[in-house]
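Example for reference:
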Amino acid sequence: MTNFYRVSTANMYDSTLRNLAARQKSLVDLQENLTSGKRVVRPSDDPVAAAQAERALTRISRIQTEQRALEVQRNAIAQAESTLGDAVGLVQEIRQLVVAAGGGALKPEDRKTYANQIQSLREQLSEVINRKDTNGIPLLGALGSALTPFTGPLSAAPDYIFDGLPGQGSSSGTSITTTLDGHAALMFDPRRDGVYEATVSAGTTGSSLRTSAISPSDPTQITGDGYRIDFTAVGPGATAGTLSATYTITNTTTGVTSAPITAPDFAPDKGGTIAVTGVPGLTFTVNGTPAAGDAIALKPSSSLMSSIDSAIQNIGGATDSSAAAQAVSQALASIDAGMEKLHNIRGYAGELLNRADRITGDQTNRSIQLEADRSRAEDLDMMQGISDFQNASVGYEAALKSYAQVQRLSLFNYING
């Protein structure tokens, strides 16, 4: 059986025009892709690829925001690290002056001159440690502080205070803290640091009694209280050429006095020392010949600035070389302890800056990866795009030529002819 189909001239024209319009639209779309360099110009071109590209762009934008915030944080920590460097430099100068003030040939007037120089440096130190960043936030403000975190000297104890919340702010995988723990850098905690100062009060004129630096023997036993050691009797020891000394220890915070303690058989003329026992968690030795009525006061230092102020007072007020040596010995021990704390926090600042560099490197790598994901989702393969455009252009030209020939084929042309 044979089927016959009637195809009208008008229907043929319409079909051809629709095909031409479709080819023209395809050619325009390919030209738009070449011009923009993108395979996906609008979401309707490829919804899945468009969503992937949008997610990648959103993450890249978030990384850029995090990097701008990190740069602000990095600058703040860099300023804080520089501030700690300036503080270390000032404390080193102070230490050099303290050592020079211990010279045995110096007169009291010379030591007062050194004390005045130390005072000037201490005032500069107070300004440095209260520096602020460009937003007016203290660089050493810990977890939050007043605009001037370090206050002092005060008339009441403690003579210096940290007006804020001690502690170090935390960092994350994309950010670092903007402040450092100034309390840990400059303030002493007796139970944690064991920094005590000893002051000798001579009961007799010309006493040469001196003490070594106070050292923690058992930090868990340190109470943070003040103490006074009173020598009540000094006499011959059991061995020829030695002395025996009796003393009591009074807790000046609680007012409790110990039973008499005897240190037998020490020879001060031959370099012998008295190892003072009975002070919880602390140890030190006594040099020289004590006398009944001599006393040694132990006071916890609240801060590096407190220790420097004590050095200024004791060095400037020393009337002889023995008193100056005592002041210098105690000042150096406290300053060295403070320097170690400054170095530790400065080292932590350096680690924060290294961490910021690592974060930047990681974020840069993530941005490159996300940009590659976005490119794969929406960018055009130019070689493929040019090839597709040329093929579409050739096809469109062929369609136009064939249409020009087909439109002349009409039954009416032959009827009229």
